[in-house]
Amino acid sequence: MSASQCLIPYVDPAAASPDVAAALNRMPMKRHIFLLLSHAPGLFPPIMNTYGAFFQSKTRTIPLLVWQLIVLRIASTLKCAYEWDVNAPVARVHGMLAEVMEQVAVCQPISPEDGQTMFNERQRRILKLVDEQLQTYANEPATVKYLLEYLSYAELVEAFYVNGLYVMIARLVKSVGINLDGEIPGLDDMIRAGVN
Q1: How many whole angstroms separate alpha carbon 68 and alpha carbon 89?
Q2: Using one digit for the tens of pLDDT, what is the confidence trace for 145-180?
Q3: What is each CA distance from 28 to 31, 53, 68, 121, 190, in whole angstroms?
């Protein structure tokens, strides 16, 4: 095993509190990010409940590929390779085209009026929302109004939930470091079974 790239040790699931161990065991994939987040034992189980809610269409209002579009844009803009590596397979397995993922990674400024990209109108508006959030921590009222032509109120608010949670994860990873998870045998099948 190689040396840890993380400035703090990963939590040992066997030594974790029962609540933390239960939250870790509910996740179908074992990821270093969970072992890092579980250092906050009081917050970790509820955060994992929120995180897990994104995986299920019965609890998530925002479409799966919109969720992943936001996450991949955050990962690419904040240069968080770990976050990209964890989420790109989810996007790919559920049908995001490689060309779209490549364009997300480029991080070119998006204008809703720009018809020159391969993004559809809804995607352009979502990317503009995310880009403004990452640049200024706020959005222009026109951006929000424009996006509400394509998203419900619930979907818009969920987009902010996604933004907040995944920005926090990227900042944590970028600040303390993390080891890549390595190959997970059967990952695509786990994604198909566990993320809908």
Answers
A1: 10
A2: 999 999 999 999 999 999 999 999 999 999 999 999
A3: 9, 13, 18, 34, 7
Query: Are 105 and 98 contacting, i.e. CB atoms less than 8 angstroms apart?
Result: no
Q: Where are the alpha helices (DSSP H) in 38-108?
A: 44-54, 64-77, 81-93, 98-106
**129-to-9, 126, 140, 186 alpha-carbon distances in Å:** 35, 5, 9, 34
Residue with tokens 């959030």: 133
Q: Is this prediction's pTM over 0.70?
A: yes
Q: What does the alpha-carbon distance between residue 103 and residue 113 come to, in Å, rounded to a whole number? A: 17
Q: Which residue's structure tokens are 């490689």? A: 98
Look at residues 186, 112, 104, 178 and name the one whose alpha carbon lies nearest to residue 147: 112
Contacts of 137 (CB under 8 A, 6+ apart): none
Residue 150: partners with Cβ closer than 8 Å, 6 or more residues away: 121, 122, 125, 126
